[in-house]
Write a structure and sequence with these properties.
398 residues; alpha+beta; nine-stranded mixed beta sheet; 6 helices; globular
Length: 398
């Protein structure tokens, strides 16, 4: 089947799906999709020791992804993002295209007899809490036994099913893919600005152009203060432009158990709630009590969670989005839309609080946070949830 026929089939399939969606705009897939992820982060892991001693580091990050249905025109794939001068990254940054690596010969099978010992059955549990307040609400905690998960007994409805996960361009979903930064590329500086004209050009994409009015979100500073009732008061500063907030914490109890807590009034965590969420979705989640409103600047972590020991606490401030396309979407839903390209710019600001740095981490009002009782190892604290290791394995504190 030639490429022209393939594209026609893809377009016809998309039109058919949209036609059955109840009057939605009919459209065909764009030749290129572009995503800019704009993130501000604060906390003791973002600025090195000097930044920690000054009250916590602050960093800005920019992630660029270009996915195209087109093959490179003449030679190897190349594309560049031309930036406003105030970004301080040079006139442009190159989008790298992954180079396929041929798979080598498979390793000879050992037959399962040459490895000493047998795999150990996972031990420990994950205790899940949610909601702001001095104490956990009814029905908490939900307990996940790691050993039962190893046997395939995964409890239902553990991760969020009401928060749609966006799918930026990727190598798997694109005929040609480009990304930035690479491991050796420099990162934006505190004085960098994204406001101004942006242009993406290359040999596998239509030229993409748009102007940004929104810069990086302001830094989010958070602190956790111990309360007489055993709970912890999590506080942060209001971030201009934030659409809502979501907080979560991980605790290693030191006995093989781990504790996970989220600020939602419902048992909703994970997925997009730890990433970028569109403003329209955030507005719905606020009404559902899953995301805290833009006016919120504090949330009480229940005593049952704090009793688990030292914890890593994070706060996500969801930000606005900017969407661009060419040609623009037709005003009439009866007109089929054939975009050459679409571009999306997503914003967020995140803060992390480590208990070992609580006395040195600046809070919402410049006040220190908790004084630590131990120095947690982040790998041990987040192991089972984020790092692939079992939480509470005994090395959470040293």
């Amino acid at each position: 089947m030639n490429e022209r026929v393939k594209r026609a089939l893809v377009g016809a399939t998309a039109l058919g799906m949209l036609a059955g969606s109840g009057g939605a705009q009919l459209s065909t897939p764009p030749k290129a999709r572009y995503y800019m992820d704009v993130s501000t982060a604060t906390g003791p892991l973002t600025g090195g020791l000097r930044a920690i001693l000054k009250g916590g580091g602050e960093s800005r990050s920019l992630t660029l992804r270009l996915g195209s249905t087109l093959a490179p025109d003449g030679g190897a794939a190349r594309a560049d993002h031309f930036l406003p001068p105030a970004t301080l990254l040079g006139a442009s940054v190159p989008l790298a295209t992954p180079i396929p690596t041929p798979s080598g010969p498979s390793e000879p099978s050992t037959g399962g007899t040459s490895q000493p010992g047998q795999p150990q059955r996972p031990k420990g549990r994950l205790l899940i809490y949610w909601g702001c307040g001095a104490h956990a609400g009814p029905g908490q905690p939900v307990i996940i036994d790691f050993g039962k998960i190893a046997d395939g007994q995964m409890p239902p409805n553990i991760f969020s099913t009401v928060v749609p996960v966006d799918n930026p361009p990727s190598e798997a979903t694109s005929r040609t893919y480009g990304f930035w930064p690479g491991p050796r590329d420099k990162h934006p500086q505190p004085a960098s600005s994204l406001v101004g004209d942006h242009r993406i050009a290359g040999n596998y994409t239509p030229t993409i152009g748009f102007a940004l009015q929104q810069d990086w979100l302001a830094a989010l500073h958070a602190s956790v203060a111990a309360q007489p009732d055993g709970s912890g008061l999590l506080s942060w500063n209001a971030v201009p432009g934030a659409t809502g907030y979501y907080a979560w914490a991980f605790t290693g109890a030191g006995n093989g158990d781990a504790v996970c807590w989220a600020s939602s009034t419902r048992r909703e965590f994970g997925g997009a709630l730890w990433d970028y969420v569109a403003p329209t979705v955030v507005a719905r989640l606020v009404t559902q009590g899953i995301v805290l409103p833009p006016s919120a600047t504090s949330c009480q972590i229940p005593a049952e969670v704090k009793a688990g020991g030292a914890s890593v606490t994070l706060v996500n401030a969801f930000g606005p989005e900017a969407d661009f396309a060419y040609p623009p979407r037709p005003t009439s839903p009866k007109v089929v839309w054939h975009p050459d390209w679409t571009a999306k710019v997503r914003y967020k600001s995140t803060a992390m609080v480590l208990p070992s740095m609580g006395a040195m981490t600046r809070g919402a009002n410049g006040q220190p946070g908790d004084k630590p009782t131990c120095k947690p190892k982040l790998g041990g604290m987040l192991g089972g949830m984020l790092g692939g290791r079992r939480p509470g394995s005994g090395d959470d504190c040293r």
